[in-house]
Amino acid sequence: MPSKRTSLVFIALGLATLVGCGSASTHTAYVTLPNSNAVAAYRIDNNSAQFTSIVGSPYPAGNSPSSVLVHPSNRFVYVANRIENDISLFTIDSTLGSLKEVLPRTSTGLTPGSLAMDTPGNFLFVLNQVSSSISVYSINSGSGALSAVAGSPFATSPNPVALALAPSGKFLYVVNANLASVFAYTIASGVLQPVAGLPVQVGNGALAITVDPAGNFVYVANSTDSTVSVLSINSSTGALTLLGSFATGTQPMSLAVLGQYLYVANLGSSSISVFSVAPTTGVLTQITSSPFSAGSAPLFEVFDPNNLFLYIGSQSAMSISALSIDASTGVLTTTSQSASTGVAPSSMSVSK
Which residue ranges of the chain lie beneath pLDDT 50? Predict the structure, then answer.
């Protein structure tokens, strides 16, 4: 079983991803449970955020599943098994939302901890933390099967902790906590090439990374410094320029961008800091009433498909809770909706 410290790290790294479309009244959510070697599945009401466990949930996965992604087609779910060093592929029952694993599992490098997928769902990127590499797989659109692209795995700097993909699918960014820096790679048919002139230095304890939906900025959560670093992206080369760092709550562990707002989950202060983002400069301004209470030690955050709610995963409370979002102001409001996961959750992926 992973140590508490290790669990905190890979829980922060689990990509909370929003994809797909479907039912007008509900959507499904899949949550990795490392200590149970399982994936929980829920149906969530679009209007109330009420959680209902799907029949058969939780579903067995590999050893210590750390990160989960739903394919844009809503037909497949991918899970990184951190200790087993492989990826589980599940098919989704289109009526129930239940999961069925397709064996055998696909081997990765050592300790896969972070997943990313391009918008069309053609490629899956896996960050292998101990073997310091990035595995890249092409995805069969019919079966969901994974095939390693030529040259995979691709080497990266020792001890990477998280990755993020630009919305264009042209660039991949990797954050390294030990070096307090961000590396960049160009992508061509899944093949990675380092961007010249990098890495770029960020803050201490850099553990989480995301790219804004417009592809203009990279944000890095620096857990030791309790700051967020903002970097601009050169749209032609993928190169990064550090614009500045901004104070957050204590020990930020997760980042998510919705419209003009950046949401930062602060583990140490059990809060969510919300910032408005200047569209041209990327400068962050904390909104009125921020930070907002987020229950106990939030570790990851996910937007619902209609951008009405922010889902928060808590390791200490062993639950997922829903906060409502005012899209015009960015303000968060606590709701009564939550789901007990029984053990600590590590990541969540949502589809309509």
Answer: 1-23
Taken in order of first residue, the domains within the chain and their CATH numbers are 4-255 (2.130.10.10)
Q: Which amino acid is at 19?
A: V
3-state secondary structure string across 134-181: EEEEEECCCCCCEEECCCCCEECCCCEEEEEECCCCCEEEEEECCCCE
CB atoms within 10 A of CB 292: 19
Cβ atoms 206, 161 nearer than 8 A: yes
Q: Provide the pairing of β-strand 347-351 with 17-19.
A: parallel
**Phi then psi dihedrals of residue 85, to 5 deg:** 60, 50
Q: Which residue has the tokens 């930070």?
A: 291
Cα separation, 184 vs 237, whole angstroms: 10
Q: What is the pLDDT of residue 61?
A: 98
Among 184, 188, 225, 189, smallest CA distance to 207 is for 225
Report pTM.
Answer: 0.92
